[in-house]
Design brief:
heterotrimer; A alpha+beta (349); B mainly alpha (542); C mainly alpha (261); B: 542 residues; mainly alpha; two-stranded antiparallel ribbon; 15 helices; 3 strands; 66% helix; globular; C: 261 residues; Four Helix Bundle (Hemerythrin (Met), subunit A); 7 helices
Chain lengths: 349, 542, 261
């Protein structure tokens, strides 16, 4: 399939071609300027070689030329900057309809889990033609998730979730590398991303022996760890009601507003006193050391789906977020506005 | 080139002023300290080179069958640490800068000779710790020491290595401090800032970074050592710390540090190009100012090493933009050097070959930096061999070429003798070819996706790796040759005379080698720098 | 292209060979000292910046940690250092005016005050040891398992109680939260020891340099013509004092008794 001396990795994601075009543009610029400088040097060496009877002509400089060769590189680099920033913003904003997968990295292996509960080690199956969003976390040191054929890479940190997304275009098996040096077997921390046709993917999903969906396992944890005793839906609950919490803004005791995302939920389980919901006491004990990264993911996924499962409309209550539903749209609108301001270059798409 | 037959060695000079080991180990003469540094860093250069050869040997085959993974990891860590902290950072400043800055500003010595000597001893103590870490097994964290791997996971002597680098850092601070004060307060009468040689400007700019940046790596390493020794939790996520904070603090120094490495090299190039084109430098003010601009901008771009480390998209945007700001002054320098040759009288002496090699390779190295600063593209090539190729083009293609060029250029001044021109030209050519053969394939490897620091790799990367390793063996020849003929020239080389290149600049107006106090009488400067073109004979000031 | 000139300055015994005049020598050493202090600012700056980052992240724990250290001793030490800055300034003044005895007495006074500072610091460190507030995990022993306490969470208990018991504490804070906050004070104490430790190291170096200065002052090396060593040591000493002037409020004051809720 591949020659012995390939120059490009396969293009197997929607973003790959965009990255390659930018790369080729930069290669062209590099080639042009390197050859220009080399040609000038060679020309000067020959033309102005030291010969008896000819003296160098003294020239001090030229402000015009200085301006020219300041402004041209500046203009070019600004163009590259904007172009590259557009791609970067695209890569940093996973689409809402993405298939959600979780990945846990540890010395020296990758563990992936589909929301249906299908687990894999050093392999990840994904469908083509649909965005896939991977929420990543490390159990020990910093790792990095890299699939050259998709042109995506994301460091995997031990203390918080990071997210990477891609949309595969070609079915096939692609290299997965760890690119952040992580100790002895760093170069063995590799795997395969298998992109499949949607129907094959569905078949693969059902063929495995899943122990129940992530959310279902999370629900079990929720009972076992006793979360349920405080985080109930009734009004006398000691902890905020988590129903429909995910993705909503939350007002904290110190007046700040944060969005209840994966990292917020994770932090609230491990460091409960860090961001306490307004109107509640910081009475929750920490679960640090009592719960694995996988279990955290399951709990998070359960909390994520809590609202949907019940199918209940979010009534106009004061918990869990201390923000009434009528306010939510307004706050979300404002947050979106704030995050959009400096995002101008990305808006063209 | 020179009327060699009439040249005689001066009777008394800094090398024969005094004999005996004490006269060297207790010397306060900046020239002798430069020689001490030269010997020390030559050792580290070849030590680092040995590790590099072993790395390339391992990568001949994809399986990782020559060394254990742990051994391989130690090899690239030791290669990086030795080359960066114990060769590149002191290379031009502590050897050529130490020797030349006082001569070029017409001073008898640096402002603080005792501190200068202390700096060498501090360097030796730091190097001692680093070597102790090496002989007790070597460190396998990578030269970047990322936490929490370095603080809590690896089982190698990280503390000894950290302390070694920390101590060596103070040597660099003292050198920088000495240069800054010397340039400010000890310039010869008439030597205004506008008349300073560009080599001095470049070392001045690098000194600013040494003085302002090095203390931050010092405190970072102190915290790392405390973290590793006592697990106090500052970088350990399990205890509530933030490992990414280490990256910020590390790169706050280590990014500007690449400018400590390259700026003095750029200064060398400005001296060589003008001399062998017999021309004033094109755009003196722009080159001088661009050095300062690089030093200043260099401090605000560190997070471009962290675009995929989970920093916010907006800070990534700002750091990317600022990184392009650093690219502009570098481009300005390249164009000015090229323009300096225009209508010159170009002679391809060995130093000039190295300088032209520098311009070509640095141009490629600099332009590939644009790839890495480009956010969306960096996501793909970050931490791959593309990065390796890029910084070797800047550090080896740029800095080492400049260092070797400078060593050839000022060798007659330092030793009083000229190296043999034939072998020297051959070595320059071999280095250039070997270098490109080694590192150009790595750009392609990187874009294909081969991650850095990989002991074993998928078989489709083998052809390019073999090319690279073959190139490395050529490169090694290019580096060993100068060692041989430089040593040879100490005894058999032609006597150089005060000014074998008919170069301008105060350092050429004293004897070669210079007397201990550099100038018998303080020189007075009455003309612009690089005043080539007025070719009348200049009497040597004795 | 260039001519030569001979230097015609009077040769002062303290003039070293690389300088042409005493004035040049003095300017150079003063500039050198300022550049050195700049590097010191960057070094402490890195530490201060990380301290502030974690103070934002663990505000409650920093309040609790700060409240647990004794402000009296910190305040006393501040006065001691301000006093030593005055005696140091007087030593410089004495050197400028050629008063040899004055130099000697004021340098000795500065050294006594410096030693007093370190003595108080040692006492404070011992207190922390006694209360088991030593951060770190060494030889299997964790935070607050050092000193006069067993592996029980006595000291954590102390901090946790302080958080909840008036007058400093707030009884409304639940126990679970107080205990977690108490654990998080480890990062505060890490910074406390790193920052005061680096500062104390600078004091020790300062005392060493003052000893050398004292011997030279006794010998009568300094006078109106040549006093830059005294002046530079003075600059260093004032710098170390100023660092403390920042450390004292950062560690002892700004977080004290202020509760987040």
């Amino acid at each position: 399939m591949q020659s012995n001396l390939p120059l490009f990795p396969q293009q197997a994601s929607t973003v790959a071609a965009q990255v390659d075009w930018l790369y080729l543009f930069l290669v062209a610029i590099t080639a042009f300027f390197s050859l220009l400088v080399a040609a000038l040097i060679l020309f000067f060496i020959v033309k102005y070689r030291k010969t008896p009877g000819r003296e160098a002509e003294q020239i001090h400089g030229s402000t015009l030329l200085e301006i020219v060769w300041t402004v041209i590189p500046l203009g070019l680099s600004m163009a590259i900057f904007v172009w590259a920033a557009i791609i970067y913003f695209h890569l940093q904003r996973p689409p809402a309809n993405a298939l959600e997968v979780y990945g846990v990295a540890k010395q020296w292996m990758w563990k992936f889990e589909q929301s249906g509960g299908q687990r894999e080690i050093n392999a990840l199956h994904v469908p083509v033609g649909r965005p896939v969003k991977i929420t990543l976390i490390s159990q020990d040191v910093i790792h990095s998730f890299f699939v050259p054929a998709f042109r995506v890479k994301q460091d995997v940190l031990p203390n918080r979730y990071t997210i990477v997304w891609f949309q595969a275009t070609e079915p096939g098996a692609y290299h997965l590398f760890c690119t952040q040096y992580c100790g002895t077997k760093h170069s063995a921390m590799i795997g395969e991303v298998v992109a499949m046709k949607p129907e094959d993917f569905e078949a693969w999903l059902t063929s495995g022996k899943a122990e129940g969906s992530l959310a279902a396992q999370g629900e079990k944890e929720f009972q076992q760890l006793g979360c349920v005793t405080c985080h109930r839906a009734d009004s006398g609950a000691r902890g905020p009601n988590l129903m429909g919490l995910y993705g909503r803004p939350v007002r904290l005791t110190d007046g700040r507003t944060v969005v209840a995302d994966d990292n917020y939920i994770r932090e609230s389980i491990l460091v409960p006193n860090a961001k306490v919901v307004s109107g509640f006491q910081p009475i929750m004990p920490t679960f640090q050391g009592m719960i694995s990264e996988e279990e955290l993911i399951q709990l998070t996924d359960y909390i994520k789906h809590m609202g949907e499962q019940q199918g209940e409309p979010l009534n106009n209550r004061s918990t869990p977020t201390q923000i009434r539903d009528s306010e939510v749209t307004h706050i979300q609108e404002r947050m979106k506005q704030e995050s959009k301001e400096p995002q101008k270059p990305g808006k063209k798409k | 080139m020179s009327s060699a037959n009439e040249n005689v060695m001066p009777e008394k000079h800094y090398l024969n002023d005094n004999y005996g080991i004490r006269s060297w180990l207790l010397t306060k003469d900046h020239k002798r300290i430069a020689v001490l540094y030269l010997l020390t860093i030559t050792f580290f250069f070849f030590l680092g080179g040995l590790f590099a050869s072993l790395i390339r040997l391992e990568l001949l085959t994809p399986q990782g069958d020559l060394f254990q993974s742990d051994t391989y990891n130690k090899l690239f860590t030791e290669h990086g640490v030795n080359m960066i902290f114990f060769f590149l950072i002191p290379s031009v400043p502590a050897v050529l800068g130490n020797f030349l800055v006082p001569l070029m500003v017409g001073a008898k010595d640096l402002a603080f000779p005792k501190i200068n000597l202390a700096s060498w001893y501090i360097f030796i103590v730091g190097a001692g710790f680093a070597l102790a870490a090496l002989v007790s097994g070597g460190v396998d964290t990578g030269w970047t020491f990322y936490t929490p791997l370095s603080s809590g996971f690896v089982r190698t002597p990280v503390i000894a290595m950290g302390v070694g680098i920390l101590i060596a850092g103070f040597a660099s601070i003292f050198t920088g401090l000495n240069f800054i004060v010397t340039v400010h307060r000890m310039r010869a009468p008439g030597l205004t800032w506008g008349r300073l040689p560009l080599f001095v400007w470049a070392n001045y700019a690098a000194s600013l970074i040494m003085v302002l940046g090095t203390p931050v790596i010092a405190i970072t390493l102190i915290l790392l050592v405390l973290e590793r020794g006592f697990h106090i939790g500052i970088f350990d996520p399990k205890l509530g710390g933030d490992p990414v904070l280490f990256q910020h603090m590390f790169w706050f120094y280590s990014h500007p540090a690449v400018y400590i490495m390259i700026l003095p090299g750029m200064g060398v190039i400005s001296e060589i190009i003008t001399c062998f084109s017999r021309k004033r430098v094109f755009g003196y003010g722009f080159i001088a100012f661009s050095s300062i601009a690089i030093a200043v901008f260099g401090f605000v771009v560190w997070a471009h090493h962290m675009f995929v480390a989970g920093i916010s998209v907006y800070s990534a945007l700002v750091f990317s933009l600022l990184s392009y700001a650093v690219a502009i002054p570098s481009a300005v320098k390249v164009f000015n050097w090229t323009a300096t040759m225009y209508k010159g009288s170009v002679e391809l002496a060995t130093p000039m070959l190295y300088a032209l090699g520098f311009i070509g390779l640095f141009t490629i190295g600099g332009l590939t930096g644009l790839f890495l600063a480009a956010l969306g593209l960096d996501v793909h090539i970050h931490d791959t061999y593309f990065v390796i190729a890029h910084f070797h083009y800047v550090m080896v293609g740029g800095m080492v070429m400049a260092y070797l060029g400078g060593l050839h250029f000022w060798w007659p001044k330092m030793t009083g003798r000229i190296y043999p021109e034939g072998p020297a030209k051959l070595a320059a050519l071999i280095t250039f070819i070997g270098f490109n053969l080694t590192f150009f394939p790595q750009f392609i490897l990187g874009y294909l996706g081969m991650p850095r620091r990989y002991h074993a790799y998928p078989p489709e990367f083998q052809v390019l790796n073999v090319l690279s390793s073959a190139g490395a063996s050529v490169l090694a020849v290019g580096f060993i040759l100068p060692l041989i003929y430089f040593l040879w020239s100490l005894r058999y080389g032609e006597v150089a005379g005060a000014n074998p290149w008919d170069a301008k600049g105060l350092e050429w107006q004293t004897t070669s080698p210079p007397p201990t106090h550099n100038f018998e009488k303080t020189p007075v400067v009455t003309e612009e720098p690089y005043h080539y073109g007025t070719e009348q004979e200049v009497p040597v000031v004795h | 292209m260039s001519t030569s000139q001979t230097t015609t300055t009077d040769h002062h015994p303290a003039l070293v060979h690389q300088f042409d005049s005493m004035e040049q020598q003095k300017e150079a050493s003063t500039l050198g000292m300022w550049v050195f202090l700049l590097t010191e600012i960057m070094m402490f700056g890195g530490l201060f910046a990380s301290y502030l980052i974690y103070r934002i992240k663990y505000y409650d724990a920093f309040v609790a940690g700060s409240t647990s250290i004794d402000i009296k001793w910190g305040f006393a030490n501040t006065l001691v250092l301000i006093g030593s800055s005055w005696t140091m300034a007087m030593a410089v003044w004495s050197a400028q005016n050629g008063r040899r005895k004055g130099q000697v007495y004021f340098i000795i006074a500065t050294m006594i005050l410096g030693a007093a500072f370190l003595g108080v610091k040692a006492k404070e460190y011992y207190e922390k040891y006694d209360e088991c507030h030593i951060p770190g995990h060494v030889i299997g022993k964790g935070f607050n398992a050092w000193g006069g306490c067993s592996a029980t969470d006595k000291s954590l208990g102390n901090i946790a109680e302080d958080i909840r018991i008036p007058p400093h504490g707030d009884p409304n804070i639940p126990e679970a939260s107080a205990e977690l906050t108490a654990k998080q004070t480890e990062i505060f104490f890490s910074f406390y020891f790193a920052m005061t430790g680096l500062h104390a190291t600078h004091m020790l170096i300062g005392l060493g340099v003052l000893t050398w200065l004292l011997m030279r002052a006794k010998r009568g090396d300094f006078g109106p013509e040549y006093y830059s060593p005294v002046e530079n040591v003075g600059l260093y000493w004032h710098f170390v004092d100023i660092v403390w002037i920042f450390l004292f409020p950062l560690l002892y004051l700004i977080s004290r008794h202020a509760h987040a809720h």
